[in-house]
Batch of 4 targets.
Target 1
Amino acid sequence: MASVSQRSESCLQSVDPVLGDVVRQALIAAPPWLDFAVISGKRTAEEQRALWQKGRNANGDIVDASAVVTHKDGARKPSRHQTGKAVDIVAFRDGQISWKAEDNYIVAAYVAGFAAACGVRLTGGVRWRWDAGHLELETT
Ligand SMILES: [Zn+2]
């Protein structure tokens, strides 16, 4: 049984309680070999804009595709993080954060599957094949 780190908990406190509760339960129930943390929850428009700026110039043109972390600019294209309907998780491998997409797809698929079993529908990177650790409440 995993414990919920302070950072994970503060991210989970910031989001929709349905999302926060199910991800917290998934963390607690995760087997030891499937270690992960929550690294982002609710964001302001300014925080989203700053993330969108990564890899882009002042005009918003992509200048370094490898640095791009989001296509949502926080204004014209808001992120579901801004309404507290999304979290980002990251996998740990051998006690270290792993940014490898394959590791993050595994933990995201686990969380989405756990949530589905609890009747909470999540979508995100695991379905889009991009932004592996992003999970959001599915809109109905
Ligand atoms: Zn995200």
Target 2
Amino acid sequence: MGMFDWYEPAGVDECPLCRSLLGGWQGKEGPCGLYVFRQGHRIPIEQRVDPGSRGLDSVMLASRLPEGTCEIYCECERGHDWSALATVRDGVWTDTRLTLRTYPHGHAPARWRMALEVLSIAPRAIVACPECADGELAVEDAPDPSGITMRWARCARCRAVDATPVE
Ligand SMILES: [Zn+2]
Ligand SMILES: [Zn+2]
């Protein structure tokens, strides 16, 4: 029927870079019935179509996101592209991690710069590791060996680490 579904992640409603509205997340790895999936829920909360082309309620109520992760995308009002991984466990969408896949062109150093920038603007954003694209980055401000205070981002999964001076 549709080509994609709509997604409503929890706690990711503004662009980490410009703070404009971040909505209209879409993904193609679910049932692709123009359903609206909301984080924390097991089944779609609605089907976003004209009343005339609505499917059967029983079909909607049987629709699920696949176990594991699915990638979702959106663009903020000022044109910053974002992608995120939605994690689904036991049929429930449990968490969402921003990935930096769309920034820019797949070079890890550029993704690290973007990750550190996002985390300095929005310290509570959940950002996926630029190296393994899966682990969640933890941030901490601490001095480096020469005594300069740095903001360290460390992957809980692959242990990759990068740092930028704190201004
Ligand atoms: Zn933005
Ligand atoms: Zn990693």
Target 3
Amino acid sequence: MASALRTALPRSLSRATTTARPITLAAASSLRRHYSIAPPPPATTLQAPDAADPRLSKINTSTLTITKTTTPKAILPHNELVFGRNFTDHMLLLEWTAADGWLDPRITPYQNLSLDPATCVLHYAFEAFEGMKAYKDRAGNVRLFRPDKNMARMNKSAARIALPRFDGEAFIELLKKFVKLDERFIPSERGYSLYIRPNIIGTQRTLGVGPPGSAMLYVIASPVGPYYPTGFKAISLEATTYAVRAWPGGVGASKLGANYAPCVVPQVQAATRGFHQNLWLFEDIDPATGKKEDFVTEVGTMNLFAAVVGRDGQKELMTAPLDGTILDGVTRDSVLALARERLAPQGWKISERRFAMRELVEAADEGRLLEVFGSGTAAVVSPVRAISYQGKLVECGLKADQEVGPITLQMKDWIEGIQYGEEEGHPWSVKV
Ligand SMILES: Cc1ncc(COP(=O)(O)O)c(C=O)c1O
């Protein structure tokens, strides 16, 4: 199977199988002398050389084996749940080799991984992940929210760093079995959920830099409480102008662990100055004016929305476009779809467009900035009170005694209503 695939590629550009050596960058560039006829692909379609091969992404769900734990964990009281601190009894795990594709899936007791110190993920960050949730509805059914979106994004992220793709639909079937097995960990109150963390890593034992010849896809899950247990608390942001999270042609649109570690220091710096999160800007020339602007991208680990009234009186809900510098958030997409369906008929303009800090500052100064909020799986929406930018505090439309604006609150209600199955039969909510 794999040898047929390799015939399509220069031999040393194909994946290493078993203990074969991965290619080095020097070998790849010397090869390029002979194979430089095709133009390089656009950055948006960069992917593993064999990413499109369906044989290597196939998952056989019928061979799943389940080994149940003999030491079930105690269920923690709701008020002791801390995000990502406690995990369920089991994990889902699949291994992959370039020779055989995905091997038989397993659900095992939650346990340590055993990795050789030379495993490529530990040296070169061959790792991509997802964040999604399972919810329990009033009738006790367990539900996932748009899991196909997470699978599509994870496949894109994995392929960008030469990790294997996988059949998303088959993986959701396995995920359902895993979640069902550990469903006793999902509290049945609104606001509570099971955070699900799929993770894919390169497992080849090598210090050579090249496409990993083996990989592991595993899922762990952690019960979580509401992000705002005592009601919304609006956050304050520090706009970061001294560091950049992502750039055109980079990997900011991929959910790679390597994107997250470098963001921690600016977040800590913002915290030392009293801000909850930092706001990532990207300085660029505005082609309309020829002037430099600080374009708004995303906030911490959320996408960002701003509701403004234009000078012409037009109400607009806007967020940065998917230009490769922001993550294609599932919540962002959901907010946009609901806004187009339910706010546009009320006269709102819904925009995915570049907007600069200057635009927010002017709107705030002229009393036209209505609301700003972050969007993401963890909190659904997170209202923003103020943004510190160039030595000035930009007030984002909330009154002193107000923690959330009406659009932000409406979005939370709409999205949670679907997640918890209260909006009957909505296609985004997938029963387990
Ligand atoms: C950098 C970044 N942006 C945005 C998001 C929001 O994405 P989603 O709505 O899929 O959770 C996340 C969340 O995981 C993130 O890490």
Target 4
Amino acid sequence: MKDELNKNEVVNKIKRTLELFQAKNPCGGGKITLIDRRYVMLSTDYFPFDITRDLEEIFNAAGDTLLYKGGERIGKDLYAHYLPMARTYGVDIWDIISAVGWFFGWGTGTVIESGENDGRYRIRVYDSFEADSFLKRAGNTEKPVCHFMRGVLNGIVESIEGRKYSSKEDKCLAKGDGFCEFVFEPFK
Ligand SMILES: [Zn+2]
């Protein structure tokens, strides 16, 4: 119950952030756009479950690392892309990332810890699309599955902090937790 309440608060904040940007980029003409970028939609019936399974078949356990690495690169790009906008609009970069992720259905994300304890970050994501894709196709898993999402978030954290971080997914919807939660700690 408490977590549901928290999720509603997160969504309300996200909607306020989105109002700043939506007027700027109306969708239409066969294109989905938001804040100067074009997007496409893929069904979680296939994505990312199928690509993850293919990567596992071809590269064995290294498939997770490939997804993670690709995510990290995207996270760094997201930071570079949205930082100027965060400054222009006086919005926290995490609020923009969270709003864009929510708008395009990646999930409902919120930052629980942001470096105040030994540089550690803790980020919660409700309804992760990555976990949902696995749940739909493979049912509950024993290990967390959101490697791409973890990579994206780690890329953002490293960009903000300007140093290397290690990451793990503490809780995952796909292994029966109520949400996904990621912890990021600076390399010692
Ligand atoms: Zn997860």
